[in-house]
Amino acid sequence: MTAIANRYDFALVFEVVNGNPNGDPDAGNLPRLDPETNNGLVTDVSLKRKIRNYVELAREGVDGFHIYVQEGAILNEKHREAYKALRPDDAKAAKDPKLNPRDDAEAKELTAFMCRNFFDVRTFGAVMSTGINAGQVKGPVQLGFARSVEPIWPLEISITRMAATNEAEKKKSAERDDGDGRSDNRTMGRKHIVPYGLYVAHGFISAKFAQRTGFSQSDLDLLFEALTTMFEHDRSAARGEMATRKLVVFKHENELGNAPAHTLFERVRIGRNIDGEFREIDSRLDNQPPARSFADYVVEIDRDNLPAGVEIIELL
Amino acid sequence: MLDPGAAGERSGHWLQQVSGVRNAGGAHLILNACEGAEELSYGIRLKVSGDYGLFTRPEMKVERVTYDVITPSAARGILEAIHWKPAIRWIVDAIHVLEPIRFQSIRRNEVGHKAPAGKIRSAMKRGDLAGLGQLVDEDRQQRASTVLVNPAYVIEAHFEMTGKAGPDDNEGKHLDIFNRRAARGQCFHQPCLGTREFAARFELLDPASPLPAAIEDSRDLGFMLFDIDHGARGSPSMFFRARMENGVVRVPHPASAEVRR
């Protein structure tokens, strides 16, 4: 597998409808907010998790596309273990050496083995505890935080469940019973949703790091496939309806790139659709009704005077 | 998986003999006996900025807390992301802080352990991947990071030639390569502000034009990480007493007595 020979920068535009794209553990699982601007945030690790999950589904059991950082167990492994008794680890490994591997050559071998077998190590890198100055693999793909284009207003939705968790709870609600018999075992729960949010994440792919981990063209295609369809396989009660709306890839002619990434990202302009017109997002929109669908936004891509050697590929 | 600390690539040993030490932008005080004329031509000025930055304090690595200002080590990593060869070593001279210092807290689910080398080795021997994966939901740590908001800096730096420089390595060549790349937005990999999820925008500043104004703020930043000495045994950390004077942090030369090991 030859590594890619072009630098890429990409902008991923995705939406959430009546869901929580990424809860904040510090705020009781409220959707993440930038406290200064009220823009919604989705962390890089949250997006990477979805990419991993998608690849796990799309390339289940294919050699070279295993996922190192898994969520839950893999059925495949279970099947294999059924007819193949695991040999115990050798005693040396169990003691977790506190120094470097025997030599640099071995460290390189370990890294190469991991990169060959695991898609996520090849793509995002991994930290390996080879003792002091752990061998780190830096992956070619770098993702930033996704940020909503407008401030979001999370709603707190209270919901009820017609069952009690345990006997004590049942007793407590029976004391409050108002006699209609229905409130007997009810418990209240809470959900946080974003009615609508359009988020943009920026990503970077370094051809130079790709050469180190062996990240190939087919890996790149798989990554873009994952970015466009990962939300389709991430449905849950909390997520609502999420979908990738746009994936704009800037392909540079050479491996170092032909233009600063931030100038390319500025070419993807997102504004509000007011009576069919593109309107910059600013405080003057406050009198307009809030956006509730993708049709309320306009995504413009400025293709004029592109820097030489940069190509825009609109994958979605 | 989060990358703890974003160390740049390994540079040569700090204390090895360098040929032709030059001191760019020598208008400020550097308390070391650096010989050599003042030649601005070998200095560069790079403006870097981003939405967030996280320059983790080594004493607060679990629930990460950032330094107030980018460390010389992180600044070096940014320069190396644009251009670096074993023949040169970047020396950061000064850091200009262009935006007020503000913080935010972000809590994320992280993985508790690194990939164990021993397990990988035994999997290689067995020729089987069983049991190699990491189950994130069974090995989860929720950690908060205190990050900087909208950081923007001007990094003033120059480079010195190291012992690995060959006959066809000269300052002019490497300076040209760096300037050409930085001006075009080219880079080896996208530089970042401390950790890789916080990508850095960078632009080269014209040496003739005045610098963007730094903030009107002076404070003692206390002992701050200077860099990690990857050339020495055990990669010890080096520290220096950082002071911000009217938004500018002067960085001592690595060989100066101000840098504590």
TrEMBL record, chain A:
CDD domains: Cas7_I-C (cd09689). Residues 167-187 have a biased composition (Basic and acidic residues). Residues 164-188 are annotated as: Disordered. GO terms for biological process: maintenance of CRISPR repeat elements. InterPro entries: Cas7_Csh2/Csh2, CRISPR-assoc_prot_Cas7/Csd2. NCBIfam families: cas_Csd2, cas_CT1132. This is CRISPR-associated protein Csh2. It comes from Aquamicrobium defluvii.
Automatic annotation (TrEMBL), chain B:
It is an enzyme of class 3 (hydrolase). GO terms for biological process: defense response to virus; maintenance of CRISPR repeat elements. Gene3D superfamilies: 3.30.70.2660. Its EC number is 3.1.-.-. Keywords: Antiviral defense, Endonuclease, Hydrolase, Nuclease, RNA-binding. CRISPR (clustered regularly interspaced short palindromic repeat) is an adaptive immune system that provides protection against mobile genetic elements (viruses, transposable elements and conjugative plasmids). CRISPR clusters contain spacers, sequences complementary to antecedent mobile elements, and target invading nucleic acids. CRISPR clusters are transcribed and processed into CRISPR RNA (crRNA). This is pre-crRNA processing endonuclease. It comes from Aquamicrobium defluvii.
